[in-house]
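Moderator note: this is an archived Q&A kept for reference. The question asked for a predicted structure of one protein chain; the sequence and the answer are reproduced below.
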Amino acid sequence: MEKLVSIIIPTYNSADFIADTLASVQQQTYPNWEVILVDDGSTDGSIEICEYFRKTDTRVKLINQNNQGLVAARKSGINSAKGTYIFYLDGDDWIDENCIEIYMQ
C-alpha cells in the first residue's frame, strides 16, 4: 500500500478559492492522502465550504481555531496529521491531478 500523504491546508477568508483548492486535491491520481483543513478564524463563509467537504469526503478533516496566523495553523495541521509525508497547500492554490504522485516518486 502506498504511504499516506497528509495535505495541510491552512485557510483564512478563502471562500472565493477553497472549493477549487479542495477539488484539485480530490482529483489526485495518487490515492492515499488525507487533507487537514485548518480554518484560522475565517469570517467570510470559508468554514461552511470546508465543512461541506469534510462531510462529503472522509479523507478531509477540519480544525477550527481562533486566528493565530499561518505558522500556528500549519503546526495545528502537523499535530493532527497521520501521514508519513506532509504536503503544504494554501487555501487559494490548486494542484495538478498528478502532483502528489510526482511528489511521491
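Archived answer notes: The chain has a mean pLDDT of 97.
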